UniProtKB/TrEMBL annotation:
The protein's name in its UniProt record: D-alanyl-D-alanine carboxypeptidase
Alphabetized UniProt keyword annotations: Carboxypeptidase, Cell shape, Cell wall biogenesis/degradation, Hydrolase, Peptidoglycan synthesis, Protease, Signal
Region (Disordered): 306-347
PROSITE patterns per record: SPOR
The organism's place on the tree of life at top rank: Bacteria
InterPro entries according to UniProt: Beta-lactam/transpept-like, Peptidase_S11, Peptidase_S11_N, SPOR-like_dom, SPOR-like_sf
Coiled coil region boundaries: none
UniProt feature, compositional bias: Low complexity: 318-334
Record flagged with keyword Transmembrane: no
Domain (SPOR): residue spans on this chain: 394-478
Organism for this UniProt entry: Mesorhizobium huakuii
GO function terms (MF aspect): carboxypeptidase activity
């Protein structure tokens, strides 16, 4: 097709006609690029009790997560709930930006709000993009900050092939993941937050007088499936992460890049039926999440997850709603994450769901300065010297990283990461900031690092560029 179009251009005598044909050719080229990742399907099946990989197909290949992104949004939401920062009834205010997100969405107007529980239910069932953005803005102060928190959490969990740019999974070329990383996150959600994991098995819920049905067609179809999340954009194809248990065995499986929702679901069903009998009946229910990281023999069970849920900044969340918030344009909406409109699928049986109270309140007026003050930290600590103590490698990404600071306060280390990201956005465009704790002489310190460098040379090159901006740093292998 492209060769034919170029042939027409070469024979055309009209500059305007040639330009039109070239534009059409570029459209095909862009479509090829956008769909290339979707054309390569990826899958993995992990024994959730032992961490053993039972099946793998391009599991480390870079993929677009689509709405699987919301799994991390919910991880951080559950973490905030577990720490008492928010509760199920905390109002989640929708900014103009959140309200304007592309479908699928809950449809809350700017300044309106719903409870945290309603936002969670709308995400696990309807995959509501507006609810995900609103939660991200509440927890992070703004979505870009929340995206950095998401990526830092991913690194702390061992998800080394993932970078998040938004809270909902709407198209962004800088947001990517792998099937293996999504399996890691799926296991982490269940093992770290069993008290909230039941949300993922919800097949519908009441929003006012409206019953909203879910997208996960395997719930109720395949015995033992209890979640977790579907996802679809044109670039990603049809994605699905499933958790399934048959009593003594438990699997987490991932399928990414399906050509349709039906084929993806059938592939997942086949993987579950094939590999569930091969899963271990031994081991404790919390083995993968709480394994002793000192023994490297049980490789994946030790590497997938840290001993406990990895830390995030302890600042109290502030809700922001501003008339100046940006609004999604029509082009983004046209490629929105909407599995309902992607294809018509057979309806599922709807399990009874408890009624969720919806609260509508006026958005609080919070000045930008207040938001900055709420998340601003004390002055950054001085840059460290290269002589540092060994780190607990169970909670840090492998490969090469660059360290820019070390502090006794995690909040100060995070502040350095934020400041450095703003000072050198191009240098750190593909890197992800994270903090990692270590003990020295009985005192806990937090290293501020940027990971995601594929080689020593890449890390050194980035550090050299930072030093030209008068940012002290050094490269280190994790």
């Amino acid at each position: 097709m492209r060769k034919a179009l170029l042939g027409i251009v070469s024979k055309s005598t009209s500059p305007l006609k040639a330009m039109m044909v070239l534009a059409l050719a570029m459209t095909f080229v862009c479509a090829d690029v956008a769909s290339s990742l979707a054309a390569r399907q990826a899958a993995i099946v992990v024994d959730a009790k032992t961490g053993k990989v039972l099946y793998s197909a391009d599991a480390n290949g870079r993929r677009y997560p689509a709405s699987l992104t919301k799994m991390m949004t919910l991880y951080l939401t559950f973490e905030a709930m577990a720490k008492g920062k928010i509760s199920r009834n905390t109002p989640v205010v929708f900014s103009a930006k959140a309200s304007a997100e592309a479908p699928t969405k809950l449809g809350v107007k700017p300044g309106g709000s719903v409870s945290v529980e309603t936002a969670i239910l709308s995400i696990v069932t309807k995959s509501a993009n507006d609810s995900a953005t609103a939660l991200g803005e509440m927890l992070g102060g703004d979505e870009p900050t929340f995206a950095r928190m998401m990526t830092a959490k991913a690194r702390a969990l061992g998800m080394n092939g993932t970078v998040f740019r938004n809270a909902n999974g709407l198209p962004d070329p800088g947001q990517f993941t792998t099937a293996r990383d999504m399996a890691t996150l799926g296991i982490a959600l269940r093992e770290h937050f069993p008290q909230y994991y039941g949300y993922f098995s919800q097949r519908s819920f009441l929003y006012g007088r409206q019953r909203i049905n879910g997208h996960n067609r395997l719930l109720g179809r395949i015995k033992g499936v209890d979640g977790i999340k579907t996802g679809y954009t044109r670039a990603s194809g049809f994605n699905l992460v499933s958790s399934v248990s048959d009593g003594n065995r438990r699997l987490v499986a991932v399928v990414m890049g399906g050509t349709s929702g039906g084929s993806r679901d059938n592939q997942m069903a086949s993987l579950i039926n094939t590999y569930m009998p091969r899963a271990s009946t031994r081991g404790g229910g919390d083995l993968v999440a709480k394994a002793d990281s000192s023994n490297p023999v049980k490789a994946l069970a030790k590497v997938l997850l840290p001993k406990h849920d990895a830390p995030t900044p302890d600042d109290k969340p502030v809700t922001v709603a501003s008339a100046d918030d940006s609004v999604a344009d029509d082009a983004t909406a046209a490629q929105g994450d909407d599995e309902e409109s992607a294809e018509a699928e057979a309806p599922t049986l709807v399990a009874p769901a408890k009624k969720v109270k919806t609260v509508i309140v006026s958005a609080p007026k919070v000045a930008t300065a207040q938001v900055v003050a709420a998340y601003a930290e004390p002055a950054p600590a001085a840059a460290p010297t290269p002589t540092v103590d060994p780190v607990n490698t169970a909670s840090v990404p492998s490969g090469w990283a660059i360290q820019v600071a070390s502090s006794q306060k995690q909040s100060e280390a995070q502040a350095v990461l934020d400041k450095t990201s703003k000072q050198a956005p191009k240098v750190l465009a593909d890197a992800s900031g994270f903090t990692v704790a270590f003990d020295k002489d009985g005192v806990t310190y937090y290293r501020a690092r940027f990971g995601g460098f594929g080689s020593k040379d890449a890390a050194w090159k980035a550090c050299t560029a930072l030093k030209k901006k008068k940012i002290e740093c050094y490269a280190v292998q994790q």
